[in-house]
Amino acid sequence: MIRFRFILMAWTLGFAKAASGAPDPVDFEQKIGTSVPRDLEFRNDEGRKVKLAEFLDQGKPTILSLAYFHCKTLCPLVLDGLVKSSNDMETTSLPPFQVIVVSIDPRDTPEDAAARKKTLLRRASRPLDANSLHILTGSERAIQQLADTVGFRYRFDASTGQYQHPSGLTVLTGDGRISRYFFGIEYQPKELQAALTDASRNGLGRMLRQLVLACYRYNATTGTYTLEIYRIMRVFAVFLLIGGGAMVYLWEHRRLQPK
Fold this sequence. Notes:
Mean pLDDT: 81
Strand order of the largest sheet: 6-5-4-10-11
Low-confidence stretches: 2-20, 210-223
Order of helices and strands: HEEEHEHEHEHEEEEEHHEEH
Largest sheet: 5 strands, mixed
Helix content: 40-55%
């Protein structure tokens, strides 16, 4: 019995070590049901101070995108994917919604926001227009608090002057809670529309694809998500340790049974 406890403890410690590890500095953690802070203050594309409550109090479902306006890789693809998806939605059954884009770079200015809004509206058609698209900039404190709330983990790379960040969108309910996430750079119009319809009724979605996303990261050179072997090895190690621990338990349990 002592040997069995020792073996089981070793497997448990091994599992904990493999499963824990340091948090990934670039990730998109799902926080379904979390309320977005309404008192966070930003500036709109006209330079006027606004609080998130000004938009969230309208009761409309919201598509929230965290990006920055001098990004050379991912952000333009995320925003283009959002515009393309909204252009292809079936407007007759689509609830009124709004899009809020918040820059994660405190160096971005309202002038940068205005230029990006102009670019996006040039490509957009109904239902996305100047009244439903809000481009915001803000302080590092406000940006970080919003990013932490929605699980958007990013970091600044001083060697390149660029931000390393995940890609995706967050759908908020009419009362400002996180309803669903969309990952990647392309979003199926029917799925995004269904998420907005559900969010308009204050519905909360389920966490999806979290394990898969832990194994993939965006490759800025190729413009695709590439498989990172060490992540797969870590996930595989977890399952291996669980299976091995179960086998040891069953073997020792059977050995100790009276014959």
